[in-house]
Q: What sequence folds into this?
């Protein structure tokens, strides 16, 4: 069971959260080609290691935030607001 | 080296007190060059190597496995085989696989213990019933067997299922695919390995691919933990690690890796002789030949390369199983594990060329790779041998994520993701 620090509510169990996938994906412009649009919708780095991702405290405050989490150890090394640029 | 197994060879082995059985397959050292390299020694990779040799006469082939063969998802699944998919493209693909499974023991001269004990899907609501009618009828339209069943028949199919009026999770009916069932997962890997090895394929273990060698944009070999190995054509069959290998080759995939967990109980006397799948609770279970209940779960819904499942999911799955089968409440669970599965947005596989000429991939089977092993190997071998997609694999290309022609099997793939 992962223990996730919600920036608003504090440390809670994984069951209270929902993962929103990779963070900082920029929506391409409306005149994007099919290839760019497909890349945006479907293609992901899917790294083995550090991953910037969005989480929502679904059964708490309901708010979104970003984390940097290792996809092998599940260790969370940074938590930062959803509006901030990518953390290292 | 690979003696043919038969009643006679068993008798001969017994008379020699089983001291003289040769190794089933050859644990090879890598040669510097091959015609074809398959990266990944799981079921799909080994099957691809076997069909390269058997169907196409290409025997100068190496299967490179980072760990030991069948040690990834092939050894971490719930051994279920079925072809209950919704769309015609999927029905053709998965039913071809099931038909290969039906004859696999004879084909490989290796008992893969296919047991067509049927798979029962449970409908927990009026909406489930409607959806399952559509699903079962779609299967029949596609030439795959499916029968809608009511509550009375469910009592026969799944003894112990709580069908009482006060059941916590009501069960209104469902449908069954009689030809579905289970197979022995390790035997599938070992059987393909033995048959491929007998045809001259090198199976190389403890050989991790760390990079791809290219010339003029075309792949010409791999860098491995055991040195550089060259080959004109290379196939990747690495399931949850597909993105890692694609990154080494310089492209991305529409894949996210998740942990999919399963667990087994202590052995019981026979209590369940079918596979029961409840999409509503995300749980599915069957009883192994050793007597253990084999329980499969839904995904841990966050990206993961850790081969262990989250306890949050274990808990919710067991709660679902116990609500449906209260009699199992005092069972002890013996083992829990997870495999890293390569989930694609439409829950359908990708079998064909990559953006790098000479490099092909078989991935995206997600939560259902085991049932696809024969057809995944068959179609990867076809494209590696001929450079042309197999007709069965034609709809399942990377290009669909640009064209938008997805084959959305999210519902029929069995569990929530």
A:
């Amino acid at each position: 069971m992962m223990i996730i620090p919600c920036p608003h509510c504090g440390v809670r169990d994984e069951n209270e959260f929902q993962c929103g996938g990779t963070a900082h994906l920029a929506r391409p412009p409306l005149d994007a080609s099919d290839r760019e649009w497909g890349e945006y919708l479907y293609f992901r780095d899917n790294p083995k290691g550090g991953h910037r991702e969005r989480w929502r405290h679904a059964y708490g405050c309901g708010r979104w935030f970003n984390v940097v989490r290792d996809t092998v150890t599940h260790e969370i090394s940074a938590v930062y607001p959803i509006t901030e640029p990518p953390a290292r | 080296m690979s003696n043919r197994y038969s009643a006679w060879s068993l008798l001969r082995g017994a008379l020699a007190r089983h001291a003289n059985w040769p190794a089933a397959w050859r644990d090879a050292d890598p040669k510097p060059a091959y015609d074809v390299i398959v990266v990944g020694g799981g079921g799909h990779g080994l099957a691809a190597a076997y069909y390269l040799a058997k169907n196409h006469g290409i025997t100068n082939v190496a299967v490179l496995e980072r760990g030991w063969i069948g040690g990834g998802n092939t050894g971490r699944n719930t051994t279920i085989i079925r072809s209950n998919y919704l769309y015609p493209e999927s029905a053709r693909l998965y039913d071809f696989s099931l038909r290969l499974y039906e004859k696999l023991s004879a084909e490989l001269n290796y008992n893969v213990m296919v047991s067509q004990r049927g798979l029962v899907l449970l409908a927990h609501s009026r909406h489930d019933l409607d959806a399952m009618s559509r699903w079962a009828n779609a299967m029949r339209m596609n030439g795959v067997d499916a029968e809608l069943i009511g509550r009375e028949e469910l009592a026969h199919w799944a003894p112990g299922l709580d069908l009482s009026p006060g059941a916590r999770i009501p069960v209104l009916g469902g449908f069954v695919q009689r030809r579905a069932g289970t197979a022995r997962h390790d035997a599938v890997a070992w059987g393909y390995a033995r048959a491929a090895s007998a045809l001259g394929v090198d199976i190389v273990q403890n050989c991790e691919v760390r990079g791809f060698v290219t010339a003029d944009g075309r792949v010409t070999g791999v860098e491995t933990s055991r040195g550089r190995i060259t080959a004109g054509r290379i196939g990747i069959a690495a399931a949850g690690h597909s993105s890692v290998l694609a990154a080494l080759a310089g492209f991305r995939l529409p894949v996210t890796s998740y942990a999919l967990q399963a667990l087994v109980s202590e052995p019981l006397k026979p209590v369940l002789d079918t596979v029961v799948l409840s999409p509503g609770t995300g749980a599915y279970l069957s009883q192994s030949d050793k007597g253990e209940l084999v329980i499969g779960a839904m995904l841990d819904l966050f990206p993961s390369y850790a081969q262990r499942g989250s306890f949050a999911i274990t808990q919710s799955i067991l709660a679902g199983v116990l609500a449906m089968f209260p009699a199992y409440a005092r069972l002890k669970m013996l083992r829990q594990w997870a495999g890293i599965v390569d989930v694609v947005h439409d829950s359908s596989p990708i079998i064909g060329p990559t953006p790098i000429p000479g490099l092909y991939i078989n991935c995206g089977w997600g939560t259902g790779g085991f049932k696809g092993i024969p057809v995944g190997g068959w179609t990867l071998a076809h494209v590696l041998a001929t450079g042309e997609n197999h007709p069965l694999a034609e709809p399942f290309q990377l290009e669909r994520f640009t064209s938008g022609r997805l084959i959305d099997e999210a519902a029929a793939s069995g569990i929530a993701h």
Notes: The interface with chain A takes residues 241, 243-244, 247, 252-257, 301-306, 310-312, 344-345, 401-404 of chain B (CB under 8 Å). Chain B has eleven helices and 18 strands. Residues 350 and 397 of chain B are 5 Å apart (CA to CA).
